[in-house]
Amino acid sequence: MAVILDRRFLDGEFLCPKEALAKYSATRIEPMHDLYRLYDHESFCDFQRRKGEVLHASEFIDRVQRLNPLLFIQHQLNFDDDWGLYIDLLGRAIYLSGFPKGWLTEFSYALIDERNLPTEERRGWRSVLLRLMAKGVLEWEAVVGEFGQSEGLNSERWMIYTAPYRNQDGSQIVARNMANEFEL
C-alpha cells in the first residue's frame, strides 16, 4: 500500500497526514491542554491511589455532626447523587459543601475524558473536612481527633491545604470566619 504524502509540511518536513496530525497534536495541542491540568494531574486521576480509607456517607455524616451538631444534611436538588452540608444562619440554610451519597474515598480524584483532561471532581471526605475548616465550622484539633492525620502518598495535598489551620495564624482565620459569618 502506497503512502501518499501530504503536500503541506510541518517544520520543513513532508509528512503523511496521520504523522502531521500527531506531530501537531504533540507540539501545539498538548501544551495547551496542560493549562487545564493540575500540577499533580497523574496522581489526581489515579483512583486506586486516591481511594485511601473509604467511609460510607452515613458514617461520615455521623462523625461530622458529632464535631458540630449545628450542621445538617440535605439532599441536593440539582445533583441527585449528592448530599449537602448546611448550617442554619438566622433561619436560612447556608451551603457549606457537597459530597456524594454512598461510599466516599478519602481523597478527591478527577474523572478524565479521551484527551486526558479533567471533566469532573469526585470529592473525598478529607476535601469536605477542609471546606468545613475553611468556613470556620470545624477546628483542626477536633478533625484530627475524630478522623486522624493523613499518611502516605496522598497526604501531600492534605498537608499543603491544612497548613493555615495547623498554625497559629490559621486559628485566627477560623475565628475571623466564625465571627463574621456564623455568629448569631
Category from helices, strands and their pairing: alpha+beta
Number of discrete domains: 1
Counting DSSP H or I runs of 4 or more residues, the number of helices is 8
Total beta strands: 9
Question: Compute the gyration radius: what is it?
Answer: 23 Å
Strands in their spatial order, largest beta sheet: 4-5-6
Taking the sheet with the most strands, its summary is: 3 strands, antiparallel
Overall shape:
elongated
- Reading the helices and strands in chain order gives EEHHHEHEEEEEEHHHH
What do the pLDDT scores average to? 76
In percent, how much strand structure appears in the residues?
Answer: 15-25%
Query: Spans of 5+ residues with little confidence (pLDDT < 50)?
Result: none
Q: Termini distance?
A: 79 Å
Q: What's the short version?
A:
The protein is of the alpha+beta class.
Please supply descriptive tags for the structure shown above:
alpha+beta, two-stranded antiparallel sheet, 8 helices
What would you note in describing this structure?
This protein has one domain (15-181). The chain has 184 residues and is α+β, with helices and mostly antiparallel strands. The protein has helices at residues 17-33, 41-44, 47-50, 57-67, 125-134, 140-147, 155-166, 168-181, and strands at residues 9-10, 13-14, 55-56, 71-75, 82-89, 92-100, 103-104, 109-112, 118-122. Strands 4-5-6 form a three-stranded antiparallel sheet, with helices on one face. Strands 1-2 form a two-stranded antiparallel sheet. A two-stranded antiparallel ribbon has the order 3-7.
